[in-house]
Design goal:
Largest sheet of chain A: 10 strands, mixed
Shape of chain A: globular
Helix content of chain B: 40-55%
Number of domains of chain A: 1
CATH superfamily of chain A: LarA, N-terminal domain
CATH topology of chain A: Rossmann fold
Number of helices of chain A: 12
Strand content of chain B: 5-15%
Number of strands of chain B: 8
Helix content of chain A: 25-40%
Radius of gyration of chain B: 28 Å
Distance between the termini of chain B: 51 Å
Order of helices and strands of chain A: HHEHEHEHHEEEHEEEHHHEEHHE
Oligomer: heterodimer
């Protein structure tokens, strides 16, 4: 049976089995060894049954703790989805509690500065920052929350690994940060079917409009091949299932957070949460072909916490 | 004693000018205020008079503020012009900066009566009956017919100049500073010296917070117009106040019987310094003769007279010493005719014709009014072009109309989506409009206040014309008015005219430059329908409305930001 023919139910069975296996293994060996144990594939963590902040904390802990990623004195860029003038309960932007908890973890790990930045599409940007709840929550946790809506914040960068997108004006804060943490929310998307971690990276680019002209899926894949976050934390506490990415649409409470160091493995799992197979998503398929990561979930070790 | 009053008068001018600037700044923010930010407009007796004449009823919120100015004028003549008026102060400052001294009084044109004729013409324009939406909805258009007054009223003129010229200039400087600081904040210097970052970053944040890209069409025109008024000072100082200002004419008329008059004693040596230095030509070539309707009580003559022969005292009017105001009857009739012409002439323009829905038949399809705007005919009558809505609009979407609605609509607000969209979570323009030309509306109502309809230009749209994967318009749409029609595996945008309210977010977001492939057209404008009827139109949508309303009711002047 090829992956394309796998039904959702079969997939869930497999995922559950893989998760159980990983869980069993984790009881025997340490978290780091799981990756090797799963035939050299990547490891992702799926946290459940906690409040949003607890989910984030549990997921990061299961990956070895924030200290593994953030060194004392480091500068961290956290990239949530903070692009729409929508309220948190509408699930169009990343859950503010999740963002705030990640900021707290970074601070606790000794980060000198944590910046929370996105390039909103709605205007005015101040409304987006306020309505999303992210500005208030993340600032209270000690971050600088900045709307990246000034061209002065971007600098042209070459993307040598790209097939189509040979250069882009990329957020300078990303080019200079010690650690980059991508914190997308899982939503369906009118144009790219789903928007998860890879699609979320469009918010660190100034001239993203041109991506639509030169082929959106390939540009997303190209960018993901060049800029790989050290940590990807997918918010699936509440997912948006219709009228994405802006909504308002039908939402569903899943109470999950998916995290990992391989953005594609996280996205592959995220796609299944929205009812798609990873291989059905154009930009994930293209990114996998470029060697960004693993989208075959049977080769991913899934650790449930 | 009275020689010191010149200094006191200058101090008073600076205080009131500073207050004007402060209130202007206040009106550009969304912060709630205890002092009305439009205090100067409200205390302008000409605006109060024209508002009440055109409505034929008392407007207490205006009257309470205007009455003190009326009382001041009855007692002291045009002291307001000399001590309070920010326009007068702006002219004094401008003339000083540009070293404009005016010609000698004997060579200055004797046009001081022109302002009285202009005032008369303006008052004629407000005598016509109020345009109203319908008999039942009289209250909807509170103040009408002000537009001609607003053209020349000094307070309105200065407010408008500040909005269209000063505000964008200040915002540009702030934005430039913010960008420079942003660029600097990435320099290695800040990595090496953390204290520097601790200084630069908060400053950048603060500057960036108040800076917003503000740009207004007509800005250069308004600047040139204002500069022209100042430049007239090279013909005669305070040329505007002497010859043109209708408010000055009104206050001078009120002060005709003021008991405070100039008196020149026998010590006068006829050196004529007072005649040459008088800002408004209130002293005739014979220094013993005085024009009470012109004197702004600036105390310049009192202060400079080498013989200390001049004083302002309480005395009776006296045919030997006072030049009474004498208007020419023929000119009065001509002025009245000019007023009628000012009412009729805009209607000669094709775009001045309204159809039975009170929509201009020949207007541009870019005549996109803000939500809550009255139908076009009452709207252009009620709108006083004060620019408050444009100043408060957080996306800079509201711009003064150029030719879109014809001559009669010049300077009224329209939405220009490519500059900024009408943000879904905002209802500030309806809250600040002083004349309810834009009626207050709630954010919930915005899904059925139709400014226009967006239409896709399929020959430009890359999804339709080039089979590209785009749909940013659909993504950006706040109201779910755009759906995708998938043909040959490509999603292409299609618009539901019952759902699209013409907010322009799609046009703003469209990646096609410079001309968007999706445009809002005024053809979907439904201002001629009541809000209930517009809601019924919304119900005809193919797709069910979103159900849950995402926004809570906004109170007061609380808004985005």
């Amino acid at each position: 049976m090829t992956h394309d023919e796998m039904t959702r139910r079969e997939f869930f069975q497999r995922a559950a089995a893989a998760g159980l296996a990983a869980y069993g293994l984790s009881q025997v060996v340490g978290g780091d060894e799981i990756a090797e144990a799963a035939a050299g594939g990547p490891i992702i963590v799926v946290a459940s049954k906690r409040d949003p902040a607890g989910l984030a904390r549990a997921a990061v802990d299961a990956l070895g703790g924030m200290k593994k990623f953030v060194k004392p004195g480091g500068v961290v860029l956290v990239k949530p989805n903070m692009t729409w003038a929508r309220r948190p309960e509408q699930a169009a932007n990343t859950n503010p509690q999740v963002v705030a908890e990640i900021v707290r973890l970074c601070k606790a790990a000794g980060a000198r500065e944590v910046k929370v930045m996105d390039h909103p599409l709605d205007s005015p940007e101040t409304t987006v920052m306020k309505m999303s709840g992210i500005a208030a929550a993340a600032e209270a946790a000690g971050a600088r929350v900045i709307s990246a809506s000034s061209m002065a914040m971007y600098q042209n960068a070459r993307l040598p690994r790209a097939k189509v997108l040979k250069s882009a004006a990329v957020l300078r804060d990303l080019q200079r940060a010690d650690v980059f943490i991508n914190v997308p929310i899982a939503k369906v998307h009118n144009s790219t079917t789903v928007t998860l971690a890879c699609k979320n990276l469009m918010g660190v680019v100034w001239d993203r409009g041109a991506w639509h002209q030169s082929g959106l899926d390939q540009c997303i894949a190209d960018f993901a091949a060049q800029y790989r976050p050290q940590l990807t934390i997918l918010d699936a506490v509440r997912v948006l299932l219709t009228n994405g990415p802006k909504g308002p649409g039908r939402t569903e409470d899943r109470g999950l957070i998916v995290a990992g160091t391989d953005p594609l493995a996280v996205d592959a799992y995220g796609a299944t949460l929205l009812g798609y197979k990873p291989q059905q998503i154009g930009h994930l398929r293209l990114a996998a072909a470029s060697g960004v990561g693993e989208i075959r979930l049977d080769r991913v070790a899934i650790k449930h916490v | 004693m009275s020689r010191r009053l010149r200094g006191l008068r200058r101090a008073s001018q600076l205080v009131f000018f500073a207050a004007f600037v402060a209130l202007f700044g206040l009106a550009a923010t969304v912060a709630p205020t205890s002092v009305p930010p439009d205090l100067f407009l409200r205390s302008d007796p000409l605006i109060a008079l024209s508002g009440m004449v055109s409505l034929r009823r008392l407007l207490l919120p205006l009257l309470w503020f205007a009455l003190p100015v009326v009382a001041l004028s009855l007692a002291l003549g045009r002291a307001y012009c000399g001590w309070v008026c920010p326009m007068g102060t702006a002219l004094d400052l401008g003339e000083r900066l540009l070293h404009l001294r005016g010609r000698r009084p004997s060579q200055a044109p004797p046009w001081r009566r022109v302002k009285f004729y202009l005032l008369l013409a303006l008052l004629v324009t407000i005598l016509l009956p109020a345009a109203r939406r319908s008999a039942d909805e009289l209250s909807l258009s509170q103040t009408v017919g002000l537009s001609a007054v607003y053209l020349l009223d000094p307070i309105a003129l200065l407010t408008r100049t500040f909005t269209l010229v000063l505000l964008p200039a200040v915002q540009w400087v702030l934005g430039f500073t913010s960008d420079q600081l942003t660029a600097f904040s990435y320099s290695d210097l800040l990595d090496r010296h953390l204290w520097l970052a601790r200084v630069v970053n908060p400053v950048q944040g603060a500057v960036g917070y108040v800076a917003g890209p503000t740009y207004f069409r007509l800005g250069l025109f308004s600047f040139a117009f204002f500069l022209g008024i100042i430049a007239l000072g090279s013909i005669a100082r305070r040329f505007w106040c002497r010859n043109l200002c209708p408010l000055g004419a009104l206050l001078g008329f009120l002060g005709k019987a003021s008991p405070v008059r100039l008196a020149v004693s026998e010590k006068c040596t006829r050196c004529l310094r007072c005649v040459n230095e008088c800002k408004t030509g209130a002293i005739t070539e014979d220094p013993h003769r005085y024009r009470g309707t012109e004197c702004i009580a600036c105390f310049t003559c009192v202060a400079i007279c080498p013989e200390k022969a001049i004083s302002l005292t309480v005395r009776r009017a006296d045919a030997d010493r006072d030049d009474a105001l004498q208007l020419d009857r023929r000119r009065v009739l001509q002025a009245a005719g000019l007023g009628v012409a000012a009412l009729v002439l805009p209607k000669v323009d094709w775009t001045g014709r309204f159809d039975e829905r009170k929509v201009t038949k020949f207007a541009s399809d870019k005549l996109i009014r803000p939500p809550g705007a009255l139908p076009e005919e009452p709207f252009v009558t009620a709108c006083v072009r004060c620019g408050e809505c444009m100043k408060i609009c957080p996306t800079n979407a509201l711009q003064p109309a150029l030719g879109e609605g014809g001559l009669q609509a010049l300077g009224t607000p329209i939405v220009v989506p490519r500059i900024g969209p009408c943000a879904q979570a905002c209802n500030l323009c309806g809250q600040v409009c002083p004349t309810r030309a834009i009626e207050p509306f709630t954010i919930e109502e915005k899904d059925h206040l139709y400014l226009g309809t967006a239409m896709v230009d399929r020959s430009l749209c890359i999804a339709w014309a080039a089979d590209k994967q785009c749909l940013i318009c659909d993504e950006a749409c706040s109201y779910r008015a755009i759906s995708q029609k998938t043909t040959e595996g490509v999603g292409r945008p299609v618009i539901d005219e019952h759902v699209c309210v013409g907010c322009g977010l799609c046009e703003r977001a469209c990646p096609i430059q410079p001309q968007a492939a999706i445009h809002v057209y005024a053809s979907g404008d439904k201002r001629h329908l009541s809000r209930v009827e517009q809601a019924a139109w919304r119900q005809q949508a193919q797709q069910e409305p979103a159900g849950e309303s995402p926004y809570p009711q906004q109170a007061g002047r609380e808004g985005p930001g």
